[in-house]
Amino acid sequence: MISIGVCHVHATPSEDYLEMVRELEALGVDRLWIPDQDFLDDPFILAAHAGLATSTLKIGIGITSPLLRHPMNLARSAATLGRLLGERLLFGMGTGNVKNVLQPLGLQPDKPLAALSSGLSTVNALLAGETTRFGPDLPEVKLGGFGENRPPVYVGARGPRTLRLAGRQANGVLIESRAAGTSFADAVAQVRAGLAARETDVSVDDFDMGLWQVVSITDDPSAVYETHKVWIARMIQAGPASAMRLAGVSERSIELLGRARTADDIGAAADQLTDDDRAAVVVAGAASRVAGILSHAIENGATSINVVGTSTLQETLSTAERLVKDVLPALPRPQIGAAAR
User: Fold this and answer.
1) What does the alpha-carbon distance between residue 276 and residue 336 come to, in Å, rounded to a whole number?
2) 276-299 per-position pLDDT tens digit
3) Are 66 and 116 in contact (CB under 8 A)?
């Protein structure tokens, strides 16, 4: 059966968050992803508490970035959590939210993809017990302790270069907001191209092709689109445009958001998006419609479905419950891959 994950991206009191975690495990959700964005609670501290509050739920960092945190500190955190959680830990990395997180901190990455690639190599090497240098004139360093439970490393990705990077260097990928149209199939093809170019022999069957998607099971999808309209507009603007076209976003909307520069511009453009544009980014509707879209992703290579909640904690829990009870039984088995489930 397909693996189901949940990520709640909203400020939540820690005690309420941990109660949500326990309820997700009781529902039969397979994995929890804890975000490292928007200056929410520290994901590594939450991951430790979430792991201690549960017994079977996989706990994922989804996602952090070597542009925000030093690779040595990422490796230390992963090694520590690996000893605490054992095989339940998943570790996601990406370029980070440049506009909303990195730039406000005064971080202006010139080559974020190169920094991610370097960070992935360094973290993997350190977790394997290897030594590394952070400069030609600096001494070699290594982790003071590392366990046998090296976590599977995921890359959060949307664009073709990052997707290929995931195939070359990671154990799994979280493909963001590309469930609609032929966009997911195109993303999977990019990841497989990276896998084919990989120096080590890694089978596609051991690689987790994860869909990372805002999902709402509702009788009123238009209301969901309205609630998420600015977020949808930002996702379309972030692109890449080719992926948005494949998902079904109109050329007019892509061009409109391509010209948007300020928050007011984006808000005005969001008001002009059609429901078809919005449905290309957010999966919303009756359980049967949601099952159809997610089934299409599975038929095109998805081995896990990871739903993102951006509203209230209760909304995230409600979506998870309906997903498990009303959608999951209608989904086909994954066509490829068995990793990290």
Assistant:
1) 30
2) 999 999 999 999 999 999 999 999
3) yes
The domains located in the chain, with CATH, are 3-214+293-330 (3.20.20.30)
Q: How far apart are the first and last CA of the chain?
A: 9
pLDDT of 146 strictly over 70: no
Asked if omega into 240 is within 30° of 0 (cis), the reply is: yes
pTM (predicted TM-score): 0.94
- The 10 Å Cβ neighbour count of residue 96 is 24
Say how far apart CA 15 and CA 17 lie, in whole Å. 5
In which residue are the tokens 């990372």 written? 212
The answer to whether residue 340 scores a pLDDT higher than 90 is: no
Beta bridge partners of 158: none
- Is it the case that residue 341 has pLDDT exceeding 90? no
Rounded Cα gap, residues 52 and 322, in angstroms: 26
Average pLDDT rounded to a whole number, residues 303-331:
95
Task: Give me Rg for the CA atoms of the chain.
Answer: 19
Q: Round to whole Å and give the CA distance between 64 and 100.
A: 14
pLDDT number for residue 96? 82
Strand partners, 211: 175, 305
Burial of 29 (0-12, 13-18, 19+ CB in 10 A): buried
For 133, 242, 250, the CA distances from 273, given in Å and listed in that order, are: 49, 18, 9
10 Å CB burial of residue 255 (0-12, 13-18, 19+) is exposed
Q: How far apart are CA 249 and CA 121, in angstroms?
A: 35
In contact, 297 and 167? CB cutoff 8 Å: no
**β-pair type (153-157, 172-176):** parallel
Q: What angle do CA 203, 208, 214 make, to 5 degrees?
A: 155
Q: Mind listing the pLDDT tens digit for each residue in 68-108?
A: 999 999 999 999 999 999 999 999 999 987 777 777 888 78
Please tell me what DSSP assigns to residue 333. P
Q: Is 39 exposed, middle or buried (0-12, 13-18, 19+ CB in 10 A)?
A: exposed
